[in-house]
Structure formats: C-alpha cells, structure tokens
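Sample pair:
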Amino acid sequence: MRVEEARRIVEGEAKTLDPLEIRVEESLGYVLGEDIAAPIPLPIFDNSAMDGYAIRSEDTLGAKEGNPISFRIIGESRTGNPFLGKVGPFEAVGIGTGAQIPEGADAVIEIEEVEVVGETIRVRNNVERWRNVRMRGEEIAEKDVVLRKGELMTPGKIALLSALGIERIWVTRKPDVSIVVTGEEVVPPGIPLPPGRIYDSNTPFLSSSLLEMGIKPRSVRLVGDSEEDIREAIEEAIEGSDLLIITGGVSVGKTDLVKYILEERLGARRLIWRVRQRPGHPFYFATLDGKPVFGLPGNPAAVAVCFYLYLYPFLNKMRGAEGGLREARAILLERFKKKAGLAYFPRVKIEGVGEGLRATPLRWQGSNMIASIAYADGMAYIPEELETVDPGTEVDLFLFPSYFLKAR
C-alpha cells in the first residue's frame, strides 16, 4: 500500500470523542468543544493606565508653564475602591493604575506632571481627551467571540476566560490510550542489562509524545514474545481504552505474533498491513471491538516515523483538533540516495526561517537509530519513484513538535 492511501484509510477511521464540561482552570491541553463569547467587556469599566489625577480635559485649555491652572482635589479612586462622586469643573480625583475613572473625568494626568499644593494640583500643560484612559471594551467587546471550537487551551487562554468570569467550558474528551511493547529482548532502563538484551526506548518515546499532546497514557505494559502473554496484555489494554498502540511483533519473523493474535485469536479487522515506506514498512492498523489498534514496528526510528505519520493526526482528530504535523518545503543540502519503490522519510536538521528553509539529512538513518529522532527537527518526504535526490532539490518536510520548542 502506498503511504498516501494508508494515511487516507487511517484518517477515515478517526472519530472525535464526546464533549466534556470541566472547570476552566483544569482545561490546559484540552481542545475547545464550543465557541465562547465574552459575557462582559474587557476592560469592564474605563480605568487609568497611570498613577495620577483624573480631571476634565477641557479645563486644561490654556495651561502652560507661566500660567498653571489649579484643580481642587476632591477624593481618590483606587483599585477595588472607586470614587463614587462626579468630577466637576476644575476638580481632580487622585487615581491609581487600574482604578475606575470617575464620572465626569475624561483624562488622567501623570502624577509627575503636576505640582501638589495642599488640597490642589497645578497643571502646566494641555491634556488631551482620554489621555491615559483604558476604555471600557477596548480589548474585548461584550458578546465578541473570543475563542473558537477546536482551539487548544493554553495558559493564556485560561487566563482570558478567567478574566471574563467564565468558570466552566465544554471541551472534547481526551482519548484513553494504552501501550503494549513486545519483545523478549526489551528491558526497562535502570536495571542491569542481561546479555543480548536492549533497553526500552519505545515506551518512553510514546508516553512522552502522548504527554506532549496533553494525553496521559492510561496503561503501559512490556511483554515478551509469548503468545499467551501478548494476548493477555492486549485484552487488558483494550478494555477501557479508546485506542491501543502495540510496538513490535508485526513483521514476518517467527516471533512476530501480534497480527496473528489480533486477527485469529481476538477477531480484529485488519485495515492496513505493510506500507511502501522506510522506516516503518511493517506498519499495521486494525480495529478490535470497534477500537483502533496501531501496530508499529519494533525499531525505535520506525516507531517515531509511524507515530508522526499516522497516530499524531489520528489522536488530534479524537481530541477535537485537526491536522497532523506542520508541513513545509526546504532545499536539501546533501545528496540522498534510496531504493526505488519505497517512500523514504529521512530525518533532517533544518536551518533558516520562513520560506528559506534548508534541510540536511542526519547520518543516522537506520530504523534502529534513535539518535535520528533525538537530533532531528523533522523528516523529509522522498517519494517512491525517486532513487537519488541531488543537493539543491526542494523537498517536502514534516516538522516535529520539538522544532518549535528550540531555543532561538
């Protein structure tokens, strides 16, 4: 199967999960399930941008250094304790930053611009109308749509909704995802490594990639190559989950039992097995009890490439968002050779910004080489029919989420 067809099939199976009402303060990482209109304006009242005195601007006409105009101080307006009277001709109200502008006033003169003499201030310059006044609704008008359905909740958006007095919102439920990592050779980090074994990097990669999307894995389990152990792990993992990820056991070796167990023992419906791509050729996709099951190859670079190509957009759709990795175009700086008949996804370093991106393939391109994911900014897409891509050729890129987190 071609990559394009595999992606289309996977996308067609993705379904958005149910809505969920939660507190705004707990919504970080969720995707909005509704448009949100402002119930109040921001600011909610005219307020001062400076410490100073609230006055009527028209009373300052003609004020200059040799001819100051005096204003009688009649009170104070402080944050949370506004002045409730009305400012009349040649009257002033002391005011703090953020405090409500009293009725009758239409300007604030900075405290350092006046001379205070007892209960009066002297003004030596004309003050324009609305000087240092933050107008009611100038940031957000009442009933403005401030956030749209499908937007990801961030700290800034949480702060905005809180400032509008909104306590609860509807979001899309996050998927419950379970992970089963197979392979007799795989052991968790932190224990002595027996002969012939390797440390597990697939579990940390998948778990952290899910967390990067705001999804906490429901369960994670490492199993060997025993048919019964794998079956038991799959049955336990699929129970209560919305989606299952399995790594290893999907190729054609003697210990590659995952496909057999899913289909022959558990009744899974196969949709994809083997895609014309590298890494990730044995990629497997099925449904079990109506739930999506992704079978990823065991090699760590293949796991990462398949996750970004297929799982990333699928999970986004489940949580109410749209789209996969951000895509771009770049000039390849070094020659890249590959086998015809397979699409390749070489991991690359990226230079430049905007439309001037340049990509260099990393030296680690084996499907077993996790360094190619650790040091990459993204992956290029080299179509099946090509064998050699010369320097200077423009190629398509998939940009990893980490690319946008790099220190600039």
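The two ends are 40 Å apart (CA to CA).
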